[in-house]
Write a structure and sequence with these properties.
Blueprint: H1 2-6, H2 14-44, H3 50-72, H4 80-87, E1 93-101, E2 106-115, E3 118-123, H5 130-141, E4 149-153, H6 156-166, H7 175-185
Parallel strand pairs: 3-4
Antiparallel strand pairs: 1-2, 2-3
Length: 187
């Protein structure tokens, strides 16, 4: 249970555990809302009371957590074998499980690699256009930092090969800021 509430964005299996966390909190808030409505009705004999008002206010965080859960349902973490293959690549920052919502689409970056002000992404959904994801990420990230390259891959073998090449580059001045921007954009 501790792992569910302490896993950070970018950790392996973040989607799996965050989905469980969002569901637990949603169910808890739903029970609180129902309890408040029932208690108010039992005490006052009507739904026009302060308990109903408090229950209505509790519906706001309930909706937030429920929407986050619903967004995460169709996505899964990268397979363990692929993660282990990426772990063998040294001297590059690799992170996992970013679900990003744009105005038009929701997409899952199962893995990202950051180095030399470059961002390489492994895209989960084969239906999403790589160029759309690249353009969206570039627009959002370049508002705060200079990024030299954004590449999105649908094939894992190609992603892994490119990350190995990227690992030979020097660290970039904006690497940490690029990661922070991705974390802000993700669910």
């Amino acid at each position: 249970m501790k792992k569910i509430f302490s896993l950070k964005k970018g950790s392996f299996e973040y989607i799996k555990y965050n989905r469980i966390k969002e569901l637990i909190i949603s169910l808890f808030l739903c029970m609180v809302i129902l309890a408040l409505i029932i208690i108010g009705f039992l005490i006052y004999g009507t739904n026009k009371n302060i308990y109903t008002v408090i229950a209505a206010i509790c519906a706001i965080p309930f909706a937030k957590f429920l929407v986050a859960y619903i967004i995460l349902v169709p996505y899964k973490s990268i397979e363990k074998e692929k993660k282990e293959e990426l772990d063998l690549i040294e001297d590059v920052d690799i992170f996992y499980d970013y679900v990003i919502t744009s105005d038009e689409k929701i997409f899952c970056l199962q893995s990202i690699a950051i180095k030399d002000n470059s961002l390489y992404c492994y895209l989960y959904n084969k239906k999403i256009d790589e160029k759309y994801v690249e353009k969206y990420l570039r627009e959002k990230i370049q508002t705060d930092c200079k990024i030299s390259t954004i590449k999105v891959f649908k094939e894992f073998a190609r992603f892994s090969r490119e990350v190995k090449i990227l690992s030979k580059n020097n660290r970039g001045r904006f690497d940490a800021k690029i990661l922070r921007m991705i974390e802000i954009m993700s669910v």
